[in-house]
Amino acid sequence: MATAYEDDFSVVGALKNKWNCRAENFIEQQKHNPFSNRYEGRKKWEVGSAEYGKPVGLTAVRAEKAKKYIDREIRTLIEIIFRCGRPSKMDGHVLIDFGQLFQTYARISTNLVGYLIRARRRNLVEFPGEMLWQRRDDDVLIHLTEKAHDMVGATM
User: Fold this and answer.
1) I need a surface site. Which of 44, 54, 83, 118 has the fewest CB within 10 A?
2) What is the pLDDT of residue 50?
């Protein structure tokens, strides 16, 4: 009679282990199949848990890709403000007129105001008002914050 140790390394033992693995995977799949008698129901999300409200699957992949794209665009915007702006006389932080920035950035992207709003949410830039409009707000000053200066200083 073969021992359990010998059984694991024999051809029959390998086939048995493979079959058991397939059977366990099948049982796990049947727990998610609503037409199976092993169905355990949909997973209930608990409000306040770490997984609640987070995208899953391909949606999560697309969300991560979009986040990286926005991060790159905001970094580009901050670097352009840093290069084209002038230092403030009060605190030394870089500032730029919206009109000048709009003319400079128009060659790069048409989404300047959206990126400015996102950058303001991340405390990278400061400007008065909720929204900036071309021509009407050309004289509005956009200030880089200390956080933006640190970000630009780390890359340059």
Assistant:
1) 44
2) 82
